[in-house]
Amino acid sequence: MAETSRQGTGTIEALSLVPKAEGKQSMKDFKSDQEVRWCPGCGDYAILAAVQGFMPELGLAKENIVFVSGIGCSSRFPYYMNTYGMHSIHGRAPAIATGLASSRRDLSVWVVTGDGDALSIGGNHLIHALRRNVNLKILLFNNRIYGLTKGQYSPTSEVGKITKSTPMGSLDAPFNPVSLAIGAEASFVARTVDSDRKHLTEVLRQASAHQGTALIEIYQNCNIFNDGAFDALKDKQQAEEAVIRLEHGKPIRFGGDLAKGVVRDALTGDLKVVAVTPENEDQVLVHDAHSPSPTTAFALSRLADPDTLHHTPIGVFRAVDRPVYDTQMADQLDTAIEQHGKGDLSALLAGGDTWTVVG
């Protein structure tokens, strides 16, 4: 399929090159024959069901969808998807997926990773995939603990967290994955919760339509080693006062009767939560996920209290157009072939920039 340039923005938008499926698909088509083996009650089950249920919406041939994972509980994901997949090495899933997406643009490439896999040993690979804007969809399961290795603190564990590896409490300040992604110039950043299937599916829907890297942080409960970490966002009564649902083009209001709102402090420029009154109602921010500046999206990512999760935004923080890495790379290769013809690997290896080692 051809590609088109969006005039006036310099952004190259690649139309889908992935073959469509023949006939109608269902959730059953995306379930593999492998026994799903996570701990009973793990939040991964809910995420798996949501992804399997969403995949038919893409209308893509299963043979042209790939899930790449690293190491961790979440990284068993490719086994359970009836697509192609790879259970790769610790932290390197974004790097492997980058090579795949760049060389095989007829594939829809998804990365499944966890807070330890992505943000510890894999931190470098993650931020470079985000800044390059490779056409990847990254699902980052965040349970704030190392589950596979039995309960050590992770890069997202709160300060003071008592675990097997921090018996006196963690001293490390935790990463905020959304803040990190926005700081790395990610073009699509979102957050959702494992148990909210409707919201999770809607975020997947928006991410899949995005050209470039889409990162979705998914709060995922580890009921064995960190149970209840996100109860404040799941309990109906608590969630009404804690969860801020971001919707593009709508005022950022929440709470019972939408009595609370997010405004910008006139003195500091920071965002803050206020009780909405007739006097300040016009000051409530209208969410703009498509703003070219990441400033407000970053400020929204800092609203949540890391310990209590009070005032936690979920939804799409940022979704902007940027040149897509693999599209640009393909354009460069096409130009090089047009100007110089196809390369000769043997000539390159034996070219002028070689030397002989004398023993």
Share in helix: 25-40%
CATH topology of the largest domain: Rossmann fold
- Number of helical regions: 12
Tell me the series of helices and strands, N- to C-terminal: EEHEHEHEHHEHEHEHHEEEEHEHH
Classified in CATH, the superfamily of the largest domain is: Thiamin diphosphate (ThDP)-binding fold, Pyr/PP domains
What's the gyration radius in Å? 22 Å
Poorly predicted regions are 1-15
CATH C-level name of the largest domain: Alpha Beta
The whole-number mean of residue pLDDT values reads 93
Distance between the termini: 54 Å
CATH architecture of the largest domain: 3-Layer(aba) Sandwich
Number of domains: 2
Bin the strand percentage.
15-25%
Quick one: overall form? globular
Helix vs. strand class: alpha/beta
Pfam family, one: TPP_enzyme_C
Domain Thiamine pyrophosphate enzyme TPP-binding: 71-218
Keywords: Oxidoreductase
Protein name: 2-oxoglutarate ferredoxin oxidoreductase subunit beta
